[in-house]
Write a structure and sequence with these properties.
Blueprint: H1 2-16, E1 22-28, H2 36-45, E2 50-57, H3 64-77, E3 85-87, H4 99-103, H5 131-141, E4 147-150, H6 155-163, E5 173-177, H7 197-201, H8 203-210, E6 216-219, H9 221-224, H10 231-237, H11 243-258, H12 268-276, E7 281-290, E8 301-304, E9 315-323, H13 325-337
Parallel strand pairs: 1-2, 1-4, 2-3, 4-5, 5-6, 6-9
Antiparallel strand pairs: 7-8, 7-9
Bound molecules: calcium ion.
Residues 28-29, 36-37, 60, 151-152, 268 line the site of calcium ion.
Length: 347
Amino acid sequence: MRKRSAILSLLLSAAAWPQEHIPVIFDTDFVMPPWDDSMALMLALQSPELEILGVTTVAGNESVERATSDALRMLEIAGRADIPVYVGADMPLVHEKSDFAVASYGNWYSDEPPPEPHGGFATKQAEDETAASFIVDAVLARPGEITIIAIGPLTNIAQAIRQEPTFASRVRRLVIMGGAVAALPNGAGNITPNAEFNFWVDPEAAYVTLRSGIPIELSPLNVSRKSSLDRGWYRKMVAVETPLTSLLKETLGKRFEVEPDRVWFMYDQIAVASVIDPSLVTTTELFVDVNIDHGISYGVSVGGRERWPGAEGAQRMQVQYDLDWPRFIEMFIDRVQRPVAVIATAD
Ligand SMILES: [Ca+2]
């Protein structure tokens, strides 16, 4: 009888587990909380709907060395050192450091060694294969199956597209946090008046990627601005003690101590949530292209219902512009409060 009930409970837990695991590659300019990439990875790691094949790092918020160091540590904190990390591009394809870049948000050009992440440097090491090669190999091994979630500058994705001519046609879907669309509400930029940070750091990579033919869903600033993480939601988030909520307390919590009335936007977290539950966002179909002229509109994304002169090669894609904020934040809180995985490692 005991044996039978053990089998029964196994079957029941299998039934509660979603039938389809979405295989994803998580491409990120990662930094520890309170930065959005780390909270997006927490959400992905704690969501059984997703099967994370690998984390690929890229220069963006900080250097690729820091992105890698922080991502390795985050995986250890979350009990998921089994997920491989691949080091990606350390610089954009074309964009070079400028006085404006140095004076503005972001350290993508930095050659400083990464600071010690929360709790010390990870013992886990990155893989030898480059991010672009891993992305190509993974997609070619499972054509039409893999979703790429790209929440940093698109340098690795553009490199993958250029490296293997058949790559683009074999990606199931690419969900990108990037861009800002003036034709929709809340479409101003956040690094220059009209450019969003990820696209502005590597405009040429965004241009190549958006024109690649990969089925794309864009999660631009328009939808990020529908989020509002305030202290009330933060307190609910950390009401249950887990390794992830402890990390949020010690990082995001400190920010709320200094600025109790601050309201944070959530960016990358929305891109991840929309893969888990597409009904959280509202999308519209637009042609979206990126300006690569080195003038006042460098890195600006432009979206339109029809193609326009200069955008003849632009591709139609789904563009997120609205968010069911309460349902999204409640899902986020539920996921980070779940017990973290305990995966046995070789050592
Ligand atoms: Ca990011």
